[in-house]
Structure formats: structure tokens, C-alpha cells
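Why does residue order matter? Because the sequence determines the fold. Keep that principle in mind as you read this record.
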Amino acid sequence: MLDKRDILQASILIVDDQLANVRLLSRLLADAGYTRVASTMNPAEVCARHRDQAFDLILLDLQMPLMDGFAVMEGLKTNDDDGYLPVIVLTAQPGHKLRALQAGAKDFISKPFDLVEVKTRIHNMLEVRLLYRKLESYNKALEQAVHERTAELRESEARYRSLTELASDWYWEQDEAGEFTKVCGPVLEMLGLRVAGLDGQGGHALAEGWDEGERQALQGNIAARRPFIDMLFHHVDAATGTRRQFRVSGEPMFDQGCRLIGYRGIGVEVTAGK
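Structure:
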């Protein structure tokens, strides 16, 4: 919501080649409590002044010599960074009103002036303009907050991966198609897999020494993209009979749009006496 002071402190530029009109509007605005009112009788300087000062509202006469109000509005469109033309046109010609609105003016005030109408239209226009700016500022702040939060999440994700790798005996990641994209530790050996490009071999299954039921359950969880925690996984060395036990955990990964982008997991050996 806007405070009344926000509206009264808005910056206003009066543009009219008739000194009497400039004085009338300036006095009217001052009496209404507006504190930042400027004026000019030279339409050629309006664009440069608006570029430098970014007026909240321009009261623009349409019929002026050398450069009329329509030409001024065309010039304003080329340097108004926010894409909003804050113009109320002043005209004594009823036929100019529609053309002015089509040219980008947001409202019009008829001459001769009805002072109550002038104050009402200016107040309403400024209220819309300032709310527009507040919304734009809020959107920029929100966009910056999202950007910063995304950076924080990426940094947190990197720390998580680093700590996970340090705290586990092995770590892996797969993409959405199930292809391995990252392997740390003897992941493929423990999973009983060979994957071309990661171990330099052929990509066929190696079942020796692994509990086939556990292995199939583990791969079933991965294939179904189901999260799981501390799943037991065993391996028996065929030569020595040594039995090793692992706890395996995994989870699917999603992007900010909740689209699945892959899978990751860790394994820790919990063999007694390790």
C-alpha cells in the first residue's frame, strides 16, 4: 500500500507553451500538497530531463509550436527504460484524446481545466505509477533473492557431495537415463557392474561374490528411482570366504522445476572388525 506522502512527494513535470497554464497547474499542485513540481515551456528539452530525473508524471500539452505533444511522446518512448510512459496529455481538442491514448498516454485532461478533475486524475495516475514501481522493485528484489538462494543451494550441494564422499567408502551419481556420471571408490565392484567409459571394460554384469537377491533389490530401487536408507549389501570372497557387509543409501535428484535429473547414492562398509 502507498502512503499519502509517497504520492505528494512524487516528481511531476508540467510541459505547456502557455505561461498561464503552467502557473495555474503549478499553483494547483502546490496547494494540493505536491512538493516536487517542475515545469518547462520548451518541449524539446522534455526527453533529456526525463532521462536524467525519471519523472513519476508528465503533464503534457499536445498543441505546441515546433514540437507538439505527439512528437514528445515518441521521443520519450526511446529513452524510458522501464517501458511505462507516465504521461497525462492536456488538450482542448476532443478528437485528439483517442489518438493520444493510442500514442501511449495513460490519461488526458481537457481544457479549459476543471480543477477537481485535474487533481483527481493526477492523484489516480500517480497512485498507479508508484504501485507499478513498487511492484517492479519487488520483482527485482525477488529475482535477486532467487539468484542468491540458487547460488547458496549450489554451494551447499557441493559441500554435501564433498562431505558425503569423505564420510562414505563410495559415492555415485547417475543421470536421468541411468548412466553413471560420477563414481568415487569401488562403486562398480560393489554393485557388481562394469560400465564402459568408467572402468574401461565391457559393461556386462559381474555377479561373483555378491548376494544376488540383495543386488537385484538394490538395482530395482535405483531403476524405480526410489529413495532408500541403510540397505544391507553383502559380498563373500570366493577364495578366502571372507564376508563383507555394507550399508547402502540412495535418493533421486530433482531440479528446481521438480524434474528428475538423476540419482545418487553412498555406501559404507560396516563389516565387524573393519
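The first strand starts at residue 11 and ends at 15.
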